Amino acid sequence: MIPLSLLAQAALAAFLLASIVRAFAGPPAAHTSPAVSRRFLLVAGCAYAAATGELLADHPVLATALAVCGVEAACVSAWLARAAWDGDDDGGGWDDEPAGPWPIDWPAFDRARAGWERTRTPA
Questions:
Q1: Domain membership of residue 73 as a residue range
Q2: Given CA atoms 37, 40, 42, 45 in this order, what sign does their dihedral have?
Q3: What is the rounded CA–CA span in Å between residue 108 and residue 104?
């Protein structure tokens, strides 16, 4: 095992801190897709799981490298997810309207459901 010097550890910690601050406090991405953000989050989870396995297998250097990759993937996921937030203060959350057409025609469904209703007659 090759131990990292104190200077290298401090540089790595500063790099991770800068990435986290940039992801959560910096400007969001210009355009994004929630699916891409979820994929980066999945990569982060896999990297954390692999880092845990390597740490249990007594490979701390590889575990550290995988953990750093997991942190970076989580930061990219957060940065991309912030772009999907509409940012207005009207109480809304994520984009209020979907980007494309609705997958289900709800007005047509309501009309069909109205046709199914029966009038009740007392017994």
A1: 31-86
A2: negative
A3: 9
| Residue 17 φ then ψ, to 5° | -65, -40
User: Has residue 111 been placed in a domain?
Assistant: no
Residue written as tokens 């009207």? Answer: 90
Residues 52-79 pLDDT 10s? 999 999 998 899 999 999 999 999 999 9
Confidence (pTM): 0.64
Say if residues 86 and 95 touch (Cβ distance below 8 Å): yes
Phi/psi for 103 (5° steps) reads: -70, -20
For the cut 60, the answer to whether the pLDDT of residue 96 exceeds it is no
User: What is the number of structural domains in the chain?
Assistant: 1
- The answer as to whether 47 is a domain residue is yes
- Of the candidates 13, 69, 21, the one whose C-alpha atom is nearest the C-alpha of residue 45 is 69
